[in-house]
Fold:
Amino acid sequence: MTKKILITGGAGYIGSMVSTKLVQQGFDVTVIDKLNYDPRSLCHLLHYKNFHFIEKDILDKKFIKSIIHKFDYIIPLAALVGAPLCEKFKRKALETNLNAIKFLIKNMKKTQRIIYTNSNSGYGIGDKKKYCDEKSPLNPISLYGRTKVDAEECVMKFGNSITFRLATVFGYSYRMRTDLLLNNLVLLALKNKKLDIFEPHFRRNFIHVRDVADAIVFSIKHFNKLKNNIYNLGMSKANVTKIDMVRKIKKNIKDLKIKYLVNKKDPDKRDYYVSNKKIEKKGFKAKIGIDQGIEEMIRVYKMKIDYKNNY
Ligand SMILES: NC(=O)c1ccc[n+]([C@@H]2O[C@H](COP(=O)([O-])OP(=O)(O)OC[C@H]3O[C@@H](n4cnc5c(N)ncnc54)[C@H](O)[C@@H]3O)[C@@H](O)[C@H]2O)c1
Structure:
């Protein structure tokens, strides 16, 4: 029987890529999204019979309750994403990122399966320069981070669940995000031919958005092998500092000027190595590296599309 998948927030940066892969592989995919950003992000799927789009707010409890039982897998991606956006709309952030997940879980049957995406950013707050695995404590400093950690806890208590703690995502998606570190540095480098870098030695882990989509497809295909566990999801080779990244960008944009700002502090305190061994041992390994991502983003930005950010 064809597996029925519900993706909330499926028109977003990650969601549009996940929906595309799942539809192309023959799954029956339903997306609920209120199209906050790029309304074209799923148009390329509208001719598929196994794709269904519903423009709705996930905070519409009556509606969610009426359809939730129809699906084998739930992938709740709808959220207010990122610390700045959640600071601006605190109440909405709590309702969307945490309360809506609690409501979903409360109304799911025990046999239904849920795949959740958290951020790994909270590892970096505390013990810096440490190799973080899934047992390292998450101590988020932003409202965004706290709502995601609390929601992860609810999802894992439900039982039939998998959580991915994502590295910083990069690369092109049908709904572009230019605020993500690599995407943003490449955009600024092309536009200004100059980058001002603060806290240049801060290190993070990265992953391409197509690898994230592949990991989610993998987790559906191997759900029993992966279930009831949390996995870091990043590319092991891509534990890189801002300096490493900027040098790689300069290789492609020769006239780029780089200035290191000594006194400016990064409000995002991430500075850590992340281990992705747990998911790699289960058989999934990210493939697309930072260099490939930089080259891709340069080509994307040269298409002169004006991308809208979410804050
Ligand atoms: N992109 C990353 O680097 C990253 C890292 C870790 C975790 N995540 C998580 O992955 C998920 C997707 O992130 P993204 O980067 O694709 O963000 P995004 O902002 O591109 O996508 C979110 C989508 O949710 C929709 N949405 C928001 N509120 C809604 C509501 N009330 N009803 C219906 N739709 C609503 C938006 O319209 C948007 O299409 C989020 O849960 C985020 O916390 C993302």
Observations:
- The radius of gyration is 19 Å.
- The chain has two domains: 4-170+207-233, 181-205+237-275+287-301.
